[in-house]
Amino acid sequence: MSIENLMSAKLIFNFGLKVRNALLTKWWRFSGPILLKLHGVDFKKSPILYGYPIVSMSAMSSIILGEGVVLCSDARFTALGVARPVILRTLRPHARIAIGADTGMSGVVICAAVSIEIGKDCLLGADVQIYDNDFHKLAPDNRRHDDNPASIGSAPVIIEDNVFIGAGSKILKGVIIGRNSVIGAGSVVSKDIPANSIAAGNPAKFIAELPITPGNA
């Protein structure tokens, strides 16, 4: 095949990909909100979906999405790709997940036994995981089968407005991350991070302060 023919074939192929992606995007934006409503997710304006998230809700629990939330579950639609779809899961009655307006996330796992609150304008990188509980008790006796909530540690997680959490990070129970802060990729956050801070590592530690401007004070 000549170079000219190869170039033509490439152009046709790329055009086909663009058409496919445009059709997929339209389909997800039509059908995704229906899927979320069927699962009991609460929102006033339809979130922006790339692929379908996995949603499961315990009885009498709630998942609330603010206006303009973006949930990316398809590796073709984010630069780093994702290992899994977005997962939104409440584990106990009355558990709550709330995600603020204009927050975007890719392949993020959020599992709440009590409460996980994420503010507005946040960026959650590929494959971030957020849990407010230990999933199993720490005491060794009958750890494998004891699912009594009283035996399993849990504490609310709060991520304030305009926080940027780098890809692959894990946010553990009881943590508060202050507004505007940045969490380095691959960090494990087990303690509170103050506002306007950069933190990273395992366990995540304070590295530097961010400059405060009138717009982010």
CATH fold name: UDP N-Acetylglucosamine Acyltransferase, domain 1
Looking at this structure, what is the CATH superfamily?
Hexapeptide repeat proteins
The count of helical stretches stands at: 1
Number of domains: 1
At the first level of CATH, the class is: Mainly Beta
Distance between the amino and carboxyl termini: 61 Å
C-alpha-based Rg, rounded: 20 Å
SSE sequence, one letter per element: HEEEEEEEEEEEEEEEEEEEE
Q: How many strands, which pairing sense, and closed or not: the largest β-sheet? A: 8 strands, mixed
- Give the percentage of residues in beta strands: 25-35%
Number of strands: 20
Helix content: 10-25%
Contiguous uncertain segments of 5+ residues: none
Sequence of strands across the biggest β-sheet: 2-5-8-11-14-17-19-20
Task: Using brief descriptors, characterize the structure shown.
217 residues; six-stranded parallel beta sheet; 20 strands; globular; eight-stranded mixed beta sheet; UDP N-Acetylglucosamine Acyltransferase, domain 1; alpha/beta
Break the fold down into its secondary structure elements and pairings.
Blueprint (H helix, E strand, L loop, with lengths): L2 H37 L2 E2 L4 E3 L3 E3 L5 E4 L4 E3 L14 E4 L5 E4 L4 E3 L2 E4 L2 E4 L4 E2 L4 E3 L25 E3 L4 E2 L4 E2 L4 E2 L4 E2 L4 E2 L7 E5 L2 E6 L8
Parallel strand pairs: 1-4, 2-5, 3-6, 4-7, 5-8, 6-9, 7-10, 8-11, 9-12, 10-13, 11-14, 12-15, 13-16, 14-17, 15-18, 17-19
Antiparallel strand pairs: 19-20
